[in-house]
Task: structure prediction
Amino acid sequence: MSDRRWWKEAVIYQIYPRSFKDSNKDGVGDIPGIIEKLDYFKWLGVDALWLSPVYKSPNDDNGYDISDYFDIMDEFGTMEDMDKLIAEAKKRDIRIIMDMVFNHTSDEHAWFIEARKSKNNKYRDYYIWRDPVDGKEPNDMGSCFSGSAWQLDEQTGQYYLHIFSKKQPDLNWENVKVRKSVAEIVEFWLDKGVGGFRLDVIENIGKIPDEKIVANGPKLHEYIHELYENGFNARGTGEDIVTIGECWSADIDIATKYTAPENKELSMVFQFEHISLDEQKGKAKWDTKELDPLDLKRVLYKWQIEHTKGWNTLFWDNHDLPRIVSHYGNDGEYRVESAKMLATLLHGMKGTPFIYQGEEIGMTNIQFDDIVEYRDIETLNMYKERIAAGYAKEDIMKSIYIKSRDNARTPMQWTCGKNAGFTDGNPWIGVNENYREINVEKSLADENSVLHHYKKLINLRKTDKAFVYGEFTPILMEDKDIFAYYRTYGKDKFLIICNFYGRDRIIEVADVDDTKVKTEIILSNYADSSKKLEKLPLRPYEAVIYKIDSIVL
Ligand code: TEU
Ligand code: CA
Result:
């Protein structure tokens, strides 16, 4: 196959360093903590680790506000630690993927410190400045973290743009010097031997603030292609590294522009259509509604069937999203079954699967009683804004329990010991109390754990290329409870069947004649799943992968 790529065959694991493993008792996860756990990743079988930002940062948005792209955050360690991580990972055939935030910097970055000094500073044009209009903000653009996207800089009397917090001023990509500086950062990290980059909100870099255009501006693809030429491919490595864009508003056409190989932009993009299906149209993410599984099916299958010129990402979780077992699964009675079902449904599809730390042991959302226990800037700003607007506190807390980013940011649960084995100090954010039940130590010892199920799913991609390159063919399209599809590759044929709900069902796989095929169960979340497909009984959240062979008579 000429278009084989390591990153198509890979499973990528996302680490949120702050919450992963603390090595020096300061309550904050760090790079030496990640190095300690490399053998765990080797055991699990993942091919690459994507680290949320580890660069110098004042942590207004936990590292997504970078003050120096060429240095490591003190709390996380040193550049020597980082070099060691890259080298130690390499020994285990694991690549390191860096998270690059190029839409904005920290206001404590040297460029911004210079830029705000005066209107004719040579870094002024690295950022986006506008005069006041009628003594107020240039327009009514809002920040993703509440309030206006414009902040007045008293000293020079102009406003600067910040799509995120006011400590995250947006870079001005129209300035060719910005584009050159960004490419240099990419080169620096390529020379360290990293395996690729995840590009934070890259869809925003072509923005036109005066027209209130943020995502998908007219020059977006030109800029990304230029970054490919001057950055990703600066060492001729454009084809070898993986680049993953975070693109909230990508539809199939837009995703194709980014990822069609001949365009030389990105390897793949995260799009979030399947994630936002529990939100009310036109409202904030906090205003949720019940998920209609047929919506989910339509969206997942659409991307499988229609996004064929580029490659897909497959993910349920990241550091911004609620825990999937709580979000679309059942984190009570059927936690284990539903976590395995969701994993099976996702990993069976075509694309590169991403696992977010803790997902592999079925970690759940958190419910802190008091807002003071929350750390996430998006959550805290929304809380203040809604209290001021007169919302009831209980209602705000309810939406926080469903959607807060801190759901995914509580410490990784390693052991039954103090603080779940995350730290010997005071954790920077509270540990979920269910750690005595849900942790890596226990999961390793239990063959039936969610963790062992993930390991098997990861391994399937290595042993059967049908899971990577096989054709995707859905069945039972109108069934509200059942997600089922074939993956076929040459003579190999697999059938993935998932019961999305906690109800017993009997289904008919109409195109299978049990007398004419031999079915083998490759993986299931129940010990004794049926091998007969014509009238197939399924228990709550039952998920089975069958290998199907025709019987030659
Ligand atoms: O996220 C982009 C983004 O749009 C999110 O803020 C998203 O809207 C929100 O989290 C949904 O709840 C990226 C990073 O993943 C995020 O952690 C950063 O805060 C953000 O960019 C700014 O860099
Ligand atoms: Ca630490």
In short: The pocket of 1-O-alpha-D-glucopyranosyl-D-fructose (ligand 1) is lined by residues 61, 64, 101, 144, 164, 200-201, 246, 248, 285, 319-320, 378, 405 (CB under 6 Å). The mean pLDDT is 97. The chain has three domains: 12-105+176-373+412-455, 110-161, 469-550. The radius of gyration is 24 Å.
